[in-house]
Amino acid sequence: MPVGSVNVRICGNSETGHAFRYLKAMASQKQKILTASVLAAALGAGLYYQLRTPVAPRPKSVEAVMPMDMAKALADAGSKPAAPRGGRTVPAGVTAAAGAEIAFERTGRNSLQMKFSNAGAKPYPIRFAAGAIFEDDRARVVLLNPVDVTVEPGGTLEQEFAVAALSSGKVESRGKFKGTTKAEPKLELLMKHLESHSELPVAVVQTAVLAILEDAPVDLFAQFPKLQPDATQRDDSFKAETWQIVSALQLLRDIGVDSAKLGEDPQLKIEAMMDVRAHDIAKQYYGISSENEWAYWRHELLAGDPSTRHFALYGIARYYPDVALVMMPRWARETRTFPHYRRAAIGALALTQKSAAKPILQELGRDLAREKEMAQRIDPALRYLEQNLPNVL
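^ that's the sequence the OP posted. Answer follows.
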């Protein structure tokens, strides 16, 4: 089935009507359990997953249709918050006085180390403004925080500062750098915003910088597999959590900058809505209120992009678990439904984080034992409950 086709089946000959009637029937039940289920999802959801399930071609393995890291707990964000701000901001550039030595070394993609020794007889002030650019012969970085320090006579100083790369080109992230008096006009609004928002993680700022300077697509940043990847070969070192990408989009909106490719990516939207860390940020950015979230998931399932419609089953399971406990077994058993919907329904049961999902999965295992492709989904789903959610069993 071609991705992007408008005329795509969901449930056999009467697929869309069948699905719509079922979801409509579930609406009254959803209203009764909405508050409880949302609270359960907010309190119990703690696992990040990524899906790699294109509708066509057919996946080569069973693992290709399940959340990618269903067997491990949500990792820490991994982003280092920007260093505290302080001191005066003046144009970049340090002229070493007699007896003074200064050197800059890039120690990682987003860190720059300054080494300074003052052999002179007077205190030596060092000042750089946020937005100052440092470079070597291959790469440039921008300073995210102002620097205002003084090195006493006979003293030395070694300190690391947060920086963002100004290009996504694949270059060595370490090396000797030098200060410049250059500036990047396109980043002026962002740097101004950072003066009062020093809490923003570096990964969020880095994503925003490349979106501004290169109109970079989601492929550069996304950890989830893209169903329709950009053909350009890209550096994996700029990968970010989904919540960080959406936070960067919100940051760009806050400063009045168009996010273009990044903000228009349809897969990012549904991935962010599924991700427990990105969910609330995505609702804010995409304008999805708690009152109309159910309508969002229903629309995605019935009329969303053909390659990601079944992702809605995961979203329903995570945020409407009581509805999913009734809905997913029916989808899993429905032989007129496309196989990838049935497989997704089985995996979605594990994402309900409900102890009631275990006997349902076990029963499905018996009922679907003769269907090898479906039966293979049962054990991974059960292991997810048993290994990652022992408190619910």
